[in-house]
Amino acid sequence: MNIQLPVPHDLRETIARVGLRALDRERSRELARSEVSDLVVAGIGRLRLPRSVGGFGLDWVASTEILLELAAQDSNIPQVLRGHFAVQEDLLWRADAESDAAPEARDLVRRWLARIAAGELVGNAWTEPGKGGFHQSGTVVSESTDGHVVNGVKYYTTGAIFADWLDVTARDAAGHELAVLMRRDQPGVEIDDDWDGFGQRTTGSGTARLSDAVVEEAELRGLNDRFPYQTALYQHFLLIVLAGVSEAAARDAAALLHERSRTFSHANTRTPRTDPQLLQAVGEIDAVAALARAQVLATAASLDAAFAARSSTEDAQIEAANAVELATGRAQVALHRPVLEALTRIFDVLGASGVSQSRSLDRHWRNARTVTSHNPWVYKARIAGDHRVNGTAPVRLWSVGEPDAAQTPSAEVPPGAPEKVTPGA
């Protein structure tokens, strides 16, 4: 059982400092390498770890509160961390089953918990460009004289360029889908910062090329053996980003209006900060930011319920995982329109001066539009409707890629096809 602890003051101070140069990094497309490093040292990567192994022992609601603070300072960084938190969640899920596991498995979990407690960071390398990844990874793991090696190309490798370890999906010679953890700093791994999206520009979501990248046999694991709400957890981090962007826009709109002195001859008051129409516009942004925050904290509570089910029956685990999958999908559907609309209202508040490139206020909309484009909401709306009307369970593990002639997209994974999840494509 996790015990809630106050987050150390130095972590909160580090989060606050992240925002000091966020606008400069946005303008120059500079990766927040030093900021991520400082956050890891301050403990951002071990929020969920138990106190007994050097963590803060926070549940998902409390962890989300901290991550929302971070997202409001720089929306890129929580997205950088989501692969790390997914691996951490799987370790915590497995840790409770240690008594039933083989000694080697128990030792592996303990080693990984110690690595995370020591500040090692994991990045994501799941999605594949082009045809790769539709129900089966194009990336392969095979035996060699060095043990096991991985070959393939990944894209949307969010956080990988900052990481010590890569979390890679691959298939073995028998066609089994695996989750593989490998060191990033080895000759067989090349990561390019070639992500060219117009938003979330500094997440490091570029290309990873794996050429005989070495992986230890102990780090090969069946993808379906991981905790059962992976997709929902990845989506939760995108919701955190969305809520953080909303809060940042509300903050900027309020601050800029408060200091503004120029007004129009046909305005309502002499000072813009007392003009009721402008205050209404800021209030609309503020209300949507509050809505997004409340929605994200609600999905965090669903994650806590799913994690609590780990000691229950398999049916109870799947039921809880389905519930959080639906919760994150509904939140995505519910928030994308009001958030995107609210983020354009900042220009109604500030007029033409608000579009100055020096302020880069358009970054809020671009960042929000980018995360709402990941894992398209239109499919989530259909899934929610199918569940409401027909009681159909949501798809929890899914893939993205270009299907060949034998593969047909559907709401269910085709019989016999390996299930896999590809977050953030």
Automatic annotation (TrEMBL):
One of its GO terms (biological process) is fatty acid beta-oxidation using acyl-CoA dehydrogenase. Residues 403-425 are annotated as: Disordered. InterPro entries: Acyl-CoA_dehydrogenase (IPR050741), Acyl-CoA_DH_C (IPR013107), Acyl-CoA_Oxase/DH_mid-dom (IPR006091), Acyl-CoA_Oxase/DH_mid-dom_sf (IPR046373), AcylCo_DH-like_C (IPR036250), AcylCoA_DH/ox_N_sf (IPR037069), AcylCoA_DH/oxidase_NM_dom_sf (IPR009100). Gene3D superfamilies: Acyl-CoA dehydrogenase/oxidase, N-terminal domain, Butyryl-CoA Dehydrogenase, subunit A, domain 2, Butyryl-CoA Dehydrogenase, subunit A, domain 3. Keywords: Flavoprotein, Oxidoreductase. The keyword Transmembrane helix does not apply. Residues 125-212 form the Acyl-CoA oxidase/dehydrogenase middle domain. Residues 243-375 form the Acyl-CoA dehydrogenase C-terminal domain. GO terms for cellular component: cytoplasm. One of its GO terms (molecular function) is acyl-CoA dehydrogenase activity. This is Alkylation response protein AidB-like acyl-CoA dehydrogenase. It comes from Nesterenkonia sandarakina.
